[in-house]
């Protein structure tokens, strides 16, 4: 075992098996799918700073950007309630490719540290803009937060790269479990956040941005203690160009699945809180359904990750697609309880597509940043057009359109080829 000048620990795991797998993916097999035999346990101790930083980031998102549509409405722009999310996703789309390339050149730790620091700045700007009722400043903060998300959401690839291929689903699942912990901790602080808002003379949704900035700052400090672990041997040129990566069979369909899942999830997640607000839910009620959504997204990673490792990518895509469709079809039901069910199914469906697609792309690093960018583009378009569709045709029309689009990951399932 050796260490590079950037502090990356090289495990040497990749000697024969994964070099052959990369050659096969590039020349013969593309995205392959086969359960692998059990191996050593996850290095949770070494991965803990990475997991904990991601938990803090999820907590920051729970109390800030997720509720941005409500803030936009309070600023007198309810017809553009989806605009902050569109700005966030568009900014993330531009930054994801940049951070992906940066992390390939300079390492995951530097890229993640810079992303968390950028998020701290964005949250502060967003808080000031909302507090002072300056819509342009609030949107600037949202854009900066989006740029940060484009970077720190790639922490999942750092986790996957730290273990052999047959444990990457489990590594992603453990990351998700820590993320849901961060969300639930912040949900438990909904009343103190309301009190902080009162002290500051603003709403709890606005005060959440200040809390989010503090959490991202702590994540930036924490990630500096992480010692990156990679299965790649030093000196090996294993990364394809972006062009060649997307020519690899199965990579484009994987990117399609990830973009579809991300787009539908973000669209409904961003616009449902405003719908819940109109249905009479208070801040605690909205926080509860968001927590249920986060539970679906991350809380079952301990199960879905190893399940994808065991059964393969195809069942993950199929189950995820049908759950996303079910979430969209139940979203228009006029019931607080059904709204909660819909948000939970939305998170769980996204989880399965996300784990399957992320595991597949962990074998093709050059495609990761661009694929994330495509997901953010889909999310930005979804929230912008979704707000307009709701204004003109109502929320049910948007939900039914999402239900149809949710079936696109079935294409990825069909394109996934068993490994011979």
TrEMBL record:
Q: Which Pfam families match?
A: MFS_1
Sorted alphabetically, which InterPro entries does this protein's record hold?
Answer: MFS, MFS_dom, MFS_trans_sf
**What are the entry keywords?**
Membrane, Transmembrane, Transmembrane helix
The keyword Transmembrane helix is annotated on this UniProt entry = yes
**What PROSITE patterns does the annotation carry?**
MFS
Its domain of life reads Bacteria
Indicate yes or no for the key word Coiled coil: no
Instruction: Tell me the protein's name.
Output: MFS transporter
């Amino acid at each position: 075992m050796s260490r590079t000048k950037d502090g990356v620990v090289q495990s040497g795991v990749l000697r024969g098996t994964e070099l052959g797998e990369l050659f096969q993916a590039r020349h013969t097999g593309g995205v392959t799918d086969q359960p692998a035999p059990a191996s050593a346990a996850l290095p949770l101790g070494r991965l803990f700073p990475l997991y904990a930083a991601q938990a803090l980031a999820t907590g920051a998102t729970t109390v800030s950007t997720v509720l941005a549509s409500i803030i936009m409405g309070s600023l007198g722009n309810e017809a553009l309630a989806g605009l902050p999310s569109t700005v966030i996703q568009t900014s993330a789309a531009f930054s994801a490719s940049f951070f992906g390339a940066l992390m390939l050149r300079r390492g995951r730790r530097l890229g993640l540290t810079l992303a968390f620091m950028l998020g701290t700045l964005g949250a502060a700007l967003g808080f000031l803009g909302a507090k002072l009722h300056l819509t342009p400043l609030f949107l600037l903060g949202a854009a900066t937060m989006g740029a940060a998300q484009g970077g720190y959401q790639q922490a999942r690839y750092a986790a996957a790269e730290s273990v052999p291929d047959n444990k990457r689903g489990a590594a992603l699942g453990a990351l998700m479990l820590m993320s849901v912990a961060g969300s639930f901790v912040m949900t438990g602080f909904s009343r103190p956040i309301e009190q902080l808002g009162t002290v500051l003379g603003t709403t709890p949704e606005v005060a959440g941005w200040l809390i989010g900035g503090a959490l991202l700052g702590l994540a930036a400090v924490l990630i500096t203690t992480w010692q990156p672990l990679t299965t790649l041997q030093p000196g090996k040129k294993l990364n394809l160009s972006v062009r060649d990566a997307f020519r690899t069979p199965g990579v484009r369909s994987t990117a399609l699945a990830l973009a579809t899942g991300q787009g539908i999830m973000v669209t409904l997640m961003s616009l449902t809180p405003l719908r819940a607000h109109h249905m009479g839910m208070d801040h605690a009620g909205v926080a509860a359904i968001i927590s249920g959504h986060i539970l679906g997204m991350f809380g079952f990673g301990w199960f879905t990750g190893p399940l994808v490792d065991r059964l393969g990518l195809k069942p993950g895509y199929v189950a995820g697609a049908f759950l996303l469709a079910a979430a969209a079809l139940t979203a228009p039901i006029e019931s607080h309880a059904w709204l909660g069910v819909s948000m939970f199914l939305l998170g769980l469906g996204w989880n399965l597509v996300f784990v399957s697609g992320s595991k597949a792309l962990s074998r093709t690093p050059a495609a990761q940043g661009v694929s994330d960018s495509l997901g953010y583009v889909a999310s930005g378009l979804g929230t912008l057009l979704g707000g307009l569709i709701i204004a003109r045709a109502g929320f049910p029309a948007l939900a039914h359109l999402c239900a149809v689009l949710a079936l696109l990951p079935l294409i990825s399932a069909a394109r996934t080829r068993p490994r011979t």
